[in-house]
Design goal:
This protein is of the alpha/beta class and 363 residues long. Helix 3 crosses helix 4. It contains 15 helices and 13 strands. It has 2 domains: 175 residues, Rossmann fold (3-Layer(aba) Sandwich); 182 residues, Glycogen Phosphorylase B (Rossmann fold, 3-Layer(aba) Sandwich), CATH 3.40.50. InterPro entries: Glyco_trans_1 (IPR001296), Glyco_trans_4-like_N (IPR028098), GlycosylTfrase_MSMEG0565 (IPR023986).
Length: 363
């Protein structure tokens, strides 16, 4: 079977992580898989090495100084559409709004549903939902949103996770211990979150919670990793920075972290915080569970569905601060053990086979 998977970026965002892992698992079954994407910022390859059995087609997408989000979205669609030829493929599967608009007739994975105000994004989002002929969701909660909002029935295929990679980072081997020690020596005790500073990630709530936590546990640091995004969150980040000054706290903002050291950063943390306002699955916190790190996250239906009794749920700064403080004081080994089991149960081989079954049903 010849499969094209389309993504909007080569950067380490959740949808791109999903696309590459799925492509590799599909290729391992013998499928002929090509990943198409835009190479933003001069990129000619993805953020990590990819299994050579997967073909890659990275389309140059140079930055334009001063380009707004709307025009950048329209240009992204046009550049990918002009480069992509669907003819050789049995299945064309778009993984996001931009690639679904560019692909033509396609299957679409809806990772989560957004609410946009930029007119170009509003139109892009709507077309990417109504035009594909088949839909996949990574959780039943998102599938329900799709059904109730658009009358579309989606196939639910949960994400996999590379649990062995993150479990290995938490192991007692000399290599793993040394890698964690690098972060502990640099950061001390810390709460980590992955996803950057942006509205959907609940960054302001986490900042407020950290301020409350610092009053009783001043030695704990807040560490923020990631943040590569297509969108312009400069105003939000400016508000976040100004609020940090007002609160007198200084979180450590690492920005994007190299793929090879991300597992040790997560495994060395005392708590993983994930106060998102909108999610489709939660790949980064599932990786934290694989590493045995206590998890505190937003009380959203989708996260309740996916994480069940392996996480502590909290909403708002007060609840977040209390839950993180409790996790620091009592890491709850039974809950962490449940988390490891949960993460190990999500694998890309199962996800790939479910996709192949869907593809076969569509041919």
């Amino acid at each position: 079977m010849r499969i094209a998977l389309l993504s909007y970026s080569t950067k380490p965002r959740g949808g791109v992580v999903h696309t590459l892992a799925l492509a590799e698992a599909l290729a391992a079954t013998g499928a002929d898989v090509t990943v198409w994407s835009l190479g933003r910022g001069g990129d000619t390859a993805f953020y990590r090495p990819v299994d050579p059995r997967v073909r890659l087609s990275v389309i140059p997408f140079p930055a334009i100084e001063g380009e707004g989000v709307g025009p950048r979205i329209l240009r992204s669609i046009a550049v990918l559409r002009d480069a992509f030829d669907p003819e050789p493929y049995d299945i064309v599967h778009a993984q996001d709004c931009i690639s679904a608009n560019a692909a033509g007739r396609c299957v679409r994975t809806v990772h989560h549903l957004d609410t946009f105000t930029t007119p170009e994004l509003v139109a892009c989002h709507e077309r990417a939902i109504v035009q594909p002929y088949a839909h996949v969701c990574v959780s039943a909660a998102v599938a329900t949103e799709l059904s109730e909002g658009w009358g579309i029935k989606a196939t639910v295929i949960p994400n996999g996770v590379d649990s062995s990679r993150f479990a290995a980072a938490a192991a007692s081997t000399p290599t793993a211990v040394a890698a964690r020690s690098v972060w502990r020596e640099r950061l001390g005790r810390y709460v980590v979150t992955v996803g950057g500073i942006e509205p959907r990630k609940g960054s302001l709530d986490l900042l407020e919670a950290y301020s409350l936590l610092s009053a009783t546990d001043p030695d704990v640091r807040l560490v923020i990793a990631g943040g590569e995004t297509l969108f312009d969150y400069r105003d939000y980040r400016a508000r976040w920075g100004a609020r940090a000054v007002e609160l007198g706290v200084t979180p450590i903002v690492l920005g994007p972290v190299a793929d090879e050291v991300l597992p040790s950063l997560v495994a060395a943390a005392d708590v993983f915080a994930f106060p998102s306002a909108k999610e489709g699955f939660g790949l980064a916190p599932m990786e934290a569970l694989a590493a045995g790190v206590p998890l505190v996250m937003s009380d959203l239906p989708v996260l309740r569905e996916v994480f069940r009794d392996a996480a502590t749920f909290a909403n708002g700064p007060q609840e977040l601060a209390k839950a993180i403080g409790q996790a620091l004081a009592d890491p709850a080994p039974d809950q962490r053990a449940r988390g490891r089991v949960l993460a190990a149960g999500h694998n890309w081989q199962t996800a790939a086979q479910a996709h192949l079954d869907l593809y076969d049903s569509l041919r």
